[in-house]
Structures are given as C-alpha cells and as structure tokens.
Here is the input.
Amino acid sequence: MTNTNPPGRRPQIRPFHLDIAQVDLDDLADRLTRTRWPDELPGVGWTHGVSLDYLRDLVEHWRTSYDWRKHEAELNEIPQFTTEIDGQRIHFLHVRSPEPDALPLILSHGWPGSVVEFLDVIGPLTDPRAHGGDPADAFHLVIPSLPGFAFSGPTREGGWDSRRMAVAFAELMHRLGYERYGAQGGDFGAFIAPDLARVDGERVVGVHVNAATVGFIPFGPVDDAVLAELTDVEKERIERKNRFLSEGNAYFQIQATRPQTLAYGLTDSPVGQLAWIVEKLKEWTHPAEDLPEAAIDRDRLLTNVMLYWLTATAGSAARLYLESMRSQNWPTKTAVPTGVAVFAEDIAIRRFAEQTNTIVHWSDFDTGGHFAAMEVPDLLTGDVRAFFRSHR
Here is the structure.
C-alpha cells in the first residue's frame, strides 16, 4: 500500500454536517415547476426509456411532497466526516459498534448509488444485538462517498479509477486506526473491494461483493464447450449479460467516452438527472418489469438523486466510467478470501470469478437486485455476517 499522506503533515479528519442552503432548495422547486416536457409516442411504456406518465408523477411527488429537510436530518443522525487524501476531499460515514470486538468494515457503493444505499444495513451490521442477531457478528462501519460523488466531489484531476480509490480508502482505514479490516461493495464497489485486497492485502481479512461484474463474469464470448457445462441459471446470466451489452449499455458508452457532454444536461435539469438514474433503478431492481418503488422506497430513491443534484456531481461521477476504461489496472489474482452474493438480477458466475479471486463463499438468491442494500437489506446483512464469521 502507498501511504498518500505527505510527510510531515498531520492528517485531519473533520466532522461533517449537512446543511443545504434554502436558496438551493428553492431553485430546485422552481426548476421542477418549469420543466419542459418532451413528447412520447402512444403505448410505448418503458420500451423507449423512462415512461413520460411515470416521470411526471414522480416529479410531482418530488416537487410537492418530498421533504428534503426530513431526510437531511436523518442523514445528520449518522456520524459523518471529511478528510483529504491524495489531493481529494473524501466524505464518509463512520459508525462504531457498541460491541468492543467488532470488525472494521468498509462499504463501497457504485453508480448511480451513494451512501444512501446503506442506510438500512447500518443498524443491523453495527448493532446486531439490538436487531435480533449475534453480537459476535458486529462491525464498525466506514462508508465513503466515492471520489467524484456527492460530498467527495467533484474530482479535480484525472486518474481516479477503482485502484486509486482503493489506495485512498486503505489510507482512510489507516487514519482511522483500523489495522485489520474487511471490505464490501456492490457495482463499482465490487471493483474497489477486491482492489483493496490487491493494494492492502496484509490488512484486509476478507472481501465480500454483490452486483459484481468485471472479475466475476466472462470477458468476451463464452466457448460453446464451456457454455455446455454451465447450469441453466448460469446460462440465463450469460443471456442477461448479452442483453445488457446489446440493449442496455448506451449509458455506459456515453459515460465512458463523453461524460462532459452529458454533464451539461444533468447538471442543469433536475428532471434529466432523475430520469438518468431512475431508468437504472427500474431496469436493475428485481423484478425489472416492476416500477422501482416495488423494490425501493420512493423517498429513498429521491434522496439518492438529491445527493447528485445538490452537489452538481453528475459529470464527476460519470467520469469514473471513462477513467476505468482508460485504466491499465485489470483484475489480477488475489489470495484474500472472497465471498460473493448473487441476487436475482446479478450476473456473476463462480467458475469465472475464481480466475481472479479466492472464492470461499458463494450465495445465490432468487430475489433482490443490483441495489441489494436497499432492496433486500436483511438478505445482504445475513450474507455479510455469514461470510465474515470465518474471517474475523
């Protein structure tokens, strides 16, 4: 691990308190009121993208019923801090368990997520005794906003791929005094958590991922002989991956090639920002044919979007895709014990995951989706506890 703190400079960790200026909330309300809506062909539903009727209804709820101050207060109940690492401000939640022998665990979100994803798992993971669990399963939690996202944004220079984020997070855990810890993540967090094992393997006791892709799926076409050996469930995951590449990958290509162009629209239009995110919540939750509110509370969905809107970090967050595609840091084999939770909308396949990870725990679920911490927090909590029980 590279220590990113300059010699002779004492790292500072400062308390952070959310207090969004009322003028910013008034500006949002005004923009929502003045939304310029597009047309829509009759009967297309969601087949051309986000449904116009659905989005109008959601925006009206955002404009007239959603109470940011309520959710701001909820977030402020959680201890939050900032520090500077590698020239970048890092915002993070830090919740210590009442159990003295708790294992430190860093949780990493992805796109289009935020620290809001983890609100429902904080209590059960830090204080299992109070939630009907075994106190021996307790964790001290560190939950950063990824560099470039929300209050860790925007990034001020290029190069912030998952490996650089992992180095920064390893330094964060060191600053907090955690010399032995676990790592968990989903989506891009499932890049960062294994990268933590690669850059800080002497201190990372175990890695747990969900919504895992690169490093856990085949790269390129699958040979017919290998395909014939797969289970029906694994073949369906291959088909889902192929459908994503042919029908659902446009957002990836835009963010990986032209994030700056995209940023103008998303930073100027709250409805544009909402639509860009809510489409993925619709497509990646389980079951995907239902509306996102079937899996995620409507206000929780909007709070997640608010962190992008209020910090104007749509473009900065999107740059993670560009940095990842330009990066030379492809997965290499790690010996750190790794556990994988595969929910119903996930596509990880064990035989491919074992090529770059030491898999010692694998769970397949027939429910839940890409945003498991929000969709099925009890299942994710249980799997994280089960995996780390042998790696404390």
